[in-house]
Write a structure and sequence with these properties.
alpha/beta; Rossmann fold; 9 strands; 331 residues; four-stranded parallel β-sheet; binds N-carbamoyl-L-aspartate
Length: 331
């Protein structure tokens, strides 16, 4: 694996390998000294053009626990706000000799473009409404751990049903999850008001429903999505209250769930809109497990991209010709 741009690029074996390695990485969380030497001397840059709490900080923690040097650059407070182009920003950062660039950008496809401009490994930390592969991986990690509590032999999600509910139109989390969950064999049901179902959804390998109450009793996992008001220009639903009545995971709806079903949400949550406090804080809510799993997953992904024996050997004795990190000359 050279870059991580899309969940759709990963086959079943690669996903299982990342999940298994994450189980080992997760052990570090329980140690008094949370440090492995694996990425000593490697440099990871988090380049974030959109707001983030958990994704940015968990990449930072993951890098630091693996002993990499981690630098954070956010658009606010950088030369991006002076009008610098994406290409110039990416080339500038790469020219400082970074090994991995973790990029979040409002434009779908920005991480792919960045990967074509530089030699460093590129990780997509969310691009527009397109993909957010490490979120789907951490969701799969969390779901698999939940399923293993009942059956420790669970490897993938064959025979399981995941309902993804809410603002699918604007959700990169939904897109990455569909790819990953389907590769792992799960059945996926997308539930949303017709206005929040993206055009072309009939070509996705999923079932689509607009009636949440009819779906809840069939799901092993209910994944609620945030209503992304910052990406909405028009009226996608009449009022927040009406959205909650039809599509919110309210206290009353919890009764419709199977007893062993679990609740996920990528965060940040709009409590009281798409998810009630009763659901978010329920015993079967995995929301904080998702956050904890996010660090383990990002440690595995960084390790897989940067920690290979060849990479480390190359890095230990850099050839003079490797001094430049860009493929094309910077003019
Ligand atoms: C998501 C994102 O930014 O795509 N959050 C996250 O990374 N945990 C989902 C969202 O913003 O609703």
């Amino acid at each position: 694996m050279r870059h991580l741009l899309s969940a759709a690029d990963l086959d079943r074996q690669e996903i299982i390998e990342i999940l298994d390695l994450s189980e080992e990485m997760a052990q570090v969380l329980h140690r008094p000294i949370k440090k492995l030497p694996a990425l000593r001397g490697r440099t990871v840059v988090n380049l974030f053009f959109e707001d983030s709490t958990r994704t940015r900080s968990s990449f930072e923690i993951a890098g630091k626990w693996l002993s990499a040097d981690v630098i954070n650059i956010s658009a606010k407070g950088s030369s991006v706000s002076k009008g610098e182009s994406l290409r110039d920003t990416v080339l500038t950062v790469a020219a400082m000799g970074v090994d991995a660039l973790v990029i979040r950008h409002q434009a779908s496809g920005a991480p792919l473009q960045a990967s074509q401009w530089i030699d460093a490994h590129v990780i997509n930390a969310g691009d527009g409404t397109h993909e957010h592969p490490t979120q789907a991986l951490l969701d799969a990690f969390t779901i698999r751990r939940h399923l293993r509590r009942h059956d420790p032999t669970v490897e993938d999600f064959a025979g399981k049903t995941v309902a993804i509910v809410g603002d699918i139109t604007h959700s990169r989390v939904a897109r990455s999850n569909v790819a990953l969950l389907r590769t792992l064999g799960a059945d996926v049901i997308m539930v949303a008001p017709p206005t929040l179902l993206p055009s072309g959804i009939e070509t996705w390998p999923v079932e689509v429903d607009t009636d949440l109450d009819a779906v809840l009793g069939r799901a092993d996992i209910v994944m609620m999505l945030r209503v992304q008001r910052e990406r909405m220009s028009g009226g996608y639903f009449p009022t927040p209250r009406e959205y909650t009545v039809s599509y919110g995971l309210t206290r009353d709806r919890l009764r419709l769930l199977k007893p062993e079903a679990a609740i996920c949400h990528p965060g940040p949550m709009n409590r009281g809109l798409e998810i009630s406090a009763d659901a978010a804080d329920a015993a079967n809510s995995l929301i904080l497990d998702q956050v904890a799993g996010g660090v383990a997953i990002r440690m595995s992904v960084l390790y897989q991209l940067l920690g290979g024996a060849d990479e480390v050997a190359d890095h230990a004795v850099p050839a003079p010709a490797e001094a430049t990190t860009t493929k094309e000359p910077v003019r």
